[in-house]
């Protein structure tokens, strides 16, 4: 006798909830503990030589390169928060938001970073996000996950892009990237220490 689809879906949600609750409480990870998603990605292509990083001190707080994509510009303060709130359709909890474009101004390869007051608030928010997206939606595919050190890293697909999100202490990171650039850019992203953004957030 086949198990009804609704029962299977419920069991999957329960298992994912357990993983989220038990795995999102970590604080740090090291590159030695990271096991990358085993997905057949393509090779990253070089960014255009004409697309230079704009001279802006804010770019010092982000990776200069992810794979062969160069950092193009950074959006912060009210402008970044407005974009993030609009994406979610509501005002999010108090935090400092940063948006970094890679490749070019019109590139879809975008890094979203939110810095919270403490790790507990960041953990609460990533749990809410993961539970809401667990079964997928009209835009995103159901979440998959990977345990990296003490943290759970999540992955989904939508709008022709790969999406990865995870937490390191009080910082939430969301990386959306073209599929053929996903493997090399994610590898570089996981090596970057976003703790440096705490100083920047405190100056906002």
Structural summary, described in words:
By secondary structure, the protein is of the alpha+beta class. The chain has one domain (about 5-204). Helix content is about 30%, strand content about 25%. It has an 8-stranded antiparallel beta sheet with strand order 1-2-3-4-8-7-6-5, with helices on both faces. β3 (about 95-100) and β4 form a beta hairpin. The protein starts with a helix and ends with a helix. The relative contact order is 0.20. The model is unreliable at about 25-55 (pLDDT under 50).
What structural class should be given to the helix and strand makeup? alpha+beta
Q: Please count the helical segments.
A: 5
Task: Estimate what percentage of residues fall within beta strands.
Answer: 25-35%
Question: Count the strands?
Answer: 8
Evaluate the radius of gyration.
17 Å
General form: globular
Assign a percent range to the helix content: 25-40%
Count of individual domains: 1
Distance between the termini: 60 Å
Regarding quaternary structure, what we see is: single chain
How would you write the strand order of the largest sheet?
1-2-3-4-8-7-6-5
